[in-house]
């Protein structure tokens, strides 16, 4: 019912961007449509302050909703910047579908904690922004020193397949101080990767030297779309803005 109302509101507002909130009340969740008071509402949205106040007064904010009538189904750089500030999941209407994005940590500048905020978390979160949701799985410390091969055992299970070429968005598996593929990086084009090494902040790096020499394999998701990498780039740009 909520999703039907969200889609109907987006259709009613087109070609302008719709906006609103999903709230939780004592009677369940419901959608509150809001007014887009942006100077150019076909390009971006700005929720009326009165509607913000109304939504807060009527219940707990569960998600912020807006639409991309003629856009792509990923959050823009501005969307990601504002999502960090609102600290809410954002639901996006595009092509008469609703895409739901959690408020993940910025992809660049993350502190490392194995099993919680590590190279797989970065890989999984980046793909979430690209519209592909991957499972989480338990990974004990130094699993690669035991009878485990978590990356290679799970890539095909999660609809990845090996490739011999490389394009932005592909996953590179690297043998980091091990004979097993135990580290992942996202190829960003122009010989750069995005990854998260132990005891370091997540960052972009040049794909050469060690990383190139100790590459195990390159993987591509069956559902990957080119706009997925746009989503990752938008987050990296938003992350850079938040750092200054």
Automatic annotation (TrEMBL):
- In Gene Ontology terms, what is one molecular function of this protein? metalloexopeptidase activity
Q: Which residues form the NlpC/P60 domain?
A: 86-222
InterPro entries found in the cross-reference section: JAB_dom_prok, JAMM/MPN+_dom, NLP_P60_dom, Papain-like_cys_pep_sf, VirAsm_ModProt
**Which protein family is it in?**
Belongs to the peptidase C40 family.
Gene3D superfamilies recorded = Cytidine Deaminase, domain 2, endopeptidase domain like (from Nostoc punctiforme)
| Organism in which the protein naturally occurs | Budvicia aquatica
Q: What is this protein called?
A: NlpC/P60 family
Q: Which domain of life is it from?
A: Bacteria
Q: Which residues form the signal peptide?
A: none
Share an example GO biological-process annotation for this protein. proteolysis
* One protein family per Pfam: Prok-JAB
Keywords tagged on the record:
Hydrolase, Metal-binding, Metalloprotease, Protease, Thiol protease, Zinc
């Amino acid at each position: 019912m909520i999703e039907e109302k969200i889609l109907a509101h987006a259709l009613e507002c087109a070609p302008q961007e719709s906006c609103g909130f999903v709230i939780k009340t004592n009677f369940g969740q419901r959608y509150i449509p809001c007014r887009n008071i942006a100077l150019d509402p076909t390009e971006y949205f700005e929720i009326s302050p009165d509607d913000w106040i109304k939504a807060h007064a009527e219940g707990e904010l569960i998600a912020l909703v807006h639409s991309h009538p003629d856009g792509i189904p990923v959050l823009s750089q501005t969307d990601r910047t504002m999502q960090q500030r609102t600290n809410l999941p954002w639901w996006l209407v595009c092509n008469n579908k609703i895409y739901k994005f959690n408020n993940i940590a910025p992809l660049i500048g993350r502190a490392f904690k194995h099993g919680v905020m590590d190279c797989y978390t970065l890989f999984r979160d980046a793909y979430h922004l690209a519209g592909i949701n991957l499972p989480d799985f338990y990974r004990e410390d130094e699993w690669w020193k035991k009878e485990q091969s978590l990356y290679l055992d799970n890539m095909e299970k999660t609809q990845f397949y090996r490739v011999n070429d490389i394009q932005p968005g592909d996953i590179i598996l690297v043998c980091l101080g091990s004979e097993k593929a135990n580290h992942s990086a996202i190829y960003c084009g122009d010989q750069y990767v995005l990854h998260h090494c132990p005891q370091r902040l997540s960052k972009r790096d040049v794909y050469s030297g060690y990383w190139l020499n100790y590459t195990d394999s390159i993987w591509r998701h069956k559902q990957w779309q080119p706009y997925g990498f746009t989503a990752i780039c938008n987050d990296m740009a938003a992350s850079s803005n938040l750092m200054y």
